[in-house]
Structures are given as structure tokens and as C-alpha cells.
Amino acid sequence: MSERFSEGFYKAIFEGCSDAIYVIDPQSSRILDANTRAWTDLGMSRERLLQHSVISLQQGVENEEHWAQIAEMIYACHPQAFTFIGRHYHQLGTYFPVEVYTSVIEFEGQPLFLSIARNLDRTSSQREAFRTKDARLTYALNEAVDGLWDWTIDTGEVFFSPQLKRMLGYLPHEMEPTLETWSEAVHDSDRDRVMAALDEHLSGRDDSYSAEYQMRKRDGSYIWVRDRGRVCQRDEAGNPLRVVGMVHDITRSKGLEDQLREQASHDHLTGLLNRRAGYIHFSKQLSYALRYNQSLTVCLIDLDHFKNINDSFGHLAGDSVLKHFAGLMNITLRKSDSLMRWGGEEFLLLLPNTEVASAVKLIGQLKEKLADNPAELESGEQISYTFSAGLACCPLHSQALDALIKCADDALYTAKASGRDTILVSDECGIEQPGLF
User: Fold this and answer.
1) Which terminus of the chain has fewer Cβ atoms in its 10 Å neighbourhood, N or C?
2) Which residues form a coiled coil (predicted)?
């Protein structure tokens, strides 16, 4: 064969192939050349296609780092082809399923990747998993947005859809198709509960399988998933033979749920328990103190001249002072103590197993700590401030929650009326003041 005829012959094969052919730069994933079928499948012109790369055309190849991992696997498979099921981008903004075979070739001393991509929308010839299972069901599993699985119980084989692998950060050829691959990815704290839910369905006690749990990704991190499945085939004795299911990533909704729960119980500015949640926590602490015959000192704290801070420096500065106070108290107080934002510039502090004299001493130490650590604004300007405090103690003053708060509030009012920057203990029931600070 002449050199000219040889070149024309191979060009005819290249252009006449019924599957898309791509020549790819292994380093950048850029498309160096492609045949007519390639840009026809993608709805593009040749010039437009050559502006793309695997990263922009293949759904699930996220960035250069991800492509480098895939390229490494392609090299590792050589001389065999690297095979996977994926989805290619169409110019109209949609994606279509493809079966891709990628080999390593060498041209003029440089390695290149040669990919043959079969459009599964155009052909009835699909991979073995598609041929050996119910084609319509398997195709639906593969094409669904969520991750899906198909478990053949007698062989133990589990088909994991490309979307499921992508959700967990795996490459198309990774994830051993076994039940253990899935069960070992379930978080240790969830595994027993999830397996029990699956057993309930397999035994026929539940109509379907459903569970929410944490699932480990390839990088070791965890996502929250909602997993649902159903037995789709049983033998004559009613024993399950095959189960299919869907895994949906609910990490974002779980995060929003946790955020809403946090917002419902915590002050958004300081991160402390808010008044509503504070009442619940106070009630539990009080019950514990009464049950075990322990003292519980309640302290209401009010930042002095806080309005002047807002008026002089602005409300953002006032917010900075509130956050500064909460942060300083949290690193200074004992682990058993509880500080919560009661409203405005007012805070409630619970001191478990602490009598009045010890509580006064502790609050005095907090005041000294605050004097040594003024709040600092983003401008670098420092704001020094003080607080007043009113104390009441269970069982000394009362054993009732509202009564303890009222005693502490009355003491705080007196402290502020006395000139602020003061600690006072409630004088309800004729209790002698242990001291002023």
C-alpha cells in the first residue's frame, strides 16, 4: 500500500466509524481532534468541539486534579483500554449516556489518549450489566440524577450506578460491586440501625426499605443520604432474590435542618443559648440541683452603659462588644457553668454546685478578666466596658425557677441603681448580703 493510500485509508476509517472518536491531550484533557460522529453527537461544529476538553464535555470530571487521577488510571490500564459508562454534554445543554473506551497511543514520540465513545441513546448494544438485567430498569437506574443500586442477593453482586459513584467521589471503574462495599461505607454509628431496617424489609415485615444515614466518600469525609429500596424479585418460596434502590444526597437539607434547629435555640450573634432554650436548660439544671441537694447560683448580668457604646461607636461596634463578652466569658468560665443571652445586653449565668460566696468570688474574677481584655474593633480601636450583676441562689432564696430569676433581677436593678460595675446578692427573705464588689 502506498503511503498516500495508507493515509487516506486510515482517514476514511476515522471518519467512517459509527462511534465518536476523540484524540485527547493526557496533560490538559484538551480535545486535539475528533471525527465527524463526535461533533454530530454533541451538536457542535468541529471548530467548536476543538475548543473543549474532557473536563467541559464529560459530566462528573470536575477539575484538573480529578482529570489527573483519571489519566493515571488510563495509563495503569495500558495496554488494555480503560472502560466506563459516562454522560457527554450536548450543545443544547442536555447530557446523553455513553460507553467510553480509552487507550494510550504514541504519535511522534508523544503519548496521546484515543477515546471511542458509543452513544447509548443510539444503540441497543449496551454493557453487560445492561444486557443481563432488565434493560429498561437498569437504564433508568443509570440515568437517574440520584445514585442507584441493584443488588442480586444470591450472588452478592451490587450494581452501583455512575451517579452513585460520582456522588461518593469515585472514578467510574472503582467501587467493588459487593454488599460489603456499601455496608462498610455506612457510618459506624448508623450501621446497625440501617442493616436492621434492610432486614425488616427482606423478611417481609416492612413493605419497603428506607433509612437516613451518613455515608463515607472516597476521601474519607461523610455525606448524609436518604436510601430507599424495595425487593423486585422473589423465588417461589417468597425469598428475596433482587433488591433495587435509590440513594439521595441530603447533606444540604440536613445542614439547613441543623442550622434551623440551631437558630431556634441559639442567639445568632453570640452563639449562646437564647432565652427560650435557656429556660429549658435552666429547668433541667434546677431539677438536678434539687434532686441531689446541691446549690445552684443564678446570676443576671447587664453590660453597663451599653446604649452609650451604640451611640458613640455605632451598632456594629455594639455587636462586637456583645460577641467579645460572650467569647471572653466562654473561655473563662468553668465547663459546668452555662452562659446564655437573656435579651439585649443582658445575660443569664448558671453556676451549678456553687454557693453564694463562691459565686461572688467567681464573678469578681470575671470582672477582672474583662478589665484586662477590652473589646477591639476592626479599626483597631479598643472599647473598655464593665458589667453589673445580680445573684440569687437555690435553695437559699427559692426553689422555684421564676422566683430565682426575679430575685436575681431585683438584685441587678439595685446594683445598676447603685452606680453600676457592681455585684449584688438578692436580699429576699432577709438574706444578709455576703458582700459588694
Assistant:
1) N
2) none
